[in-house]
Amino acid sequence: MAPERVTAEDMLERLVGFETVSGRPNRPLLEFVRGYLAQHGVAARIVPNAEGDRGNLFATIGPDTPGGIALSGHTDVVPVEGQPWSTDPFVATAKDGRIYGRGTADMKSFIAVALSLVPALKALPLRRPIHLCFSYDEEIGCLGVPSLLRLLGRELPLPALAIVGEPTGMKVVNAHKGIWVQRTTVTGRDGHSSAPHRGANAIAYMARLLGRLEQLAAELRSEAGAVPGAEFDPPWSTVNLGVIEGGTALNIIARRCSLLWEFRPLPGADAPAIRARVDDWIARELTPALRQQAPEGTVETASVAAVPALMPEPGGLAESVALRLTGANRAESVSFTSEGGQFQECGISTVLCGPGSVTEAHQPNEFVDVEQLKACEVFLRRLADWACA
Ligand SMILES: [Zn+2]
Questions:
Q1: Residue boundaries of the structural domains of the chain
Q2: In the chain, is it the N or the C terminus that has fewer CB atoms within a 10 Å radius of its CB?
Q3: 76 counts as catalytic
Q4: Which chain residues have CB less than 5 Å from ligand 1, an ion?
């Protein structure tokens, strides 16, 4: 059977049809991609999660040499529940120069364009390899890609630069903040509400933590310095109190209260040190106060996600190549996070550049302009030419 040759639009239609919502299986999509690559003589490695239902995919086109270009995309998408879609979100629907469907902007279009070019890439005399790096569970804290990144430079080749195809409207982005997410749980002692002195109210102790986090937010704002080569709105590391749950009834002293909170460090900010300020305060102030009232009381903080910021690398390989090939004269900053900082932490020069607009991402009736697919194809073809030079 002759290998399948598909356009980017056809490939996008196939990819959108896999309901790869974060936390649910992406394995059928990966197996489809593996089969497609195999048709073109490209071997792919799947790095599965513990359950085996999800995973990352890595494949190399071109010479078996160190370096080269990683084309990075996450295969997972955000849920559609409760959103007023006019079309089936998992059926790519073309209309008026746009393709609608979940993941068309964020970010199956980049993956689709890259895959559609595989036959063309195979035919080129590449001197630097091109690596496909497709991950899972990005949308819930970039949880999937670390197991793949750990293999780079060991069992898998270490790329020299990475293009993360998040929807930037094909602009080159060299900076974003990180995001650290944690859940802090206060456990006190319950009892009848008429005798508060016999219990330890977890909500009341949580209130002290809320005050400390508000103070942290003010500290981060006042400490912020400019990040050379980046512009952020706002230009400081931020804190958000996301979800709080505590207590069971008015007439019961609340035994338990939990808070889901985040901070978004600027590139260059010492994120572990920011987190340590809170941990130290809890150990020094909050827990001892709670234990005076209830010796069995605890305050525990569990990390949910810790995504590093993307640091601008003025004059860096990825930025200079991407700027030259897109014709842009400067790189930009964005307000969302990506796997870019994780690639960068492996020593890989990294920028974001991909089709579609982030304003369409995560929305009902998410779409990509067909023009954006074309622009992405032009960019990746130029990148491939650069890899031949
Ligand atoms: Zn994304």
A1: 8-176+310-388, 179-307
A2: N
A3: yes
A4: 106-107, 166
